[in-house]
Specification:
79 residues
């Protein structure tokens, strides 16, 4: 299971329906480097982040769920 990583959750007390909808359903779908959040369902059952190229499927980095995104050439949203 994978989803876009490093997305800030809106405040549930002040977020509008539009903000919640964008948070839940609107995701980037780049052609190139993409940062994803993964869950190892059939193994250790832990969450982790992965930087993956969406065209070649090359895995560029795997890092802990609390770690910031690594700096990568061509990556969107690196921090």
């Amino acid at each position: 299971m994978a989803a876009q990583a490093h997305i800030a959750r809106p405040d549930p007390h002040t977020a509008s329906d539009k903000e919640w909808g964008e948070y839940l359903f609107m995701r980037k779908n780049p052609k190139g480097v993409h940062f994803e959040r993964w869950f190892h369902a059939n193994g250790c059952r832990k969450w982790f982040h992965m930087a993956r190229h969406t065209v070649s499927h090359e895995i560029l980095a795997i890092y802990g769920i609390t770690e910031p995104a690594p700096k990568l050439d061509g990556g969107e949203g690196t921090s």
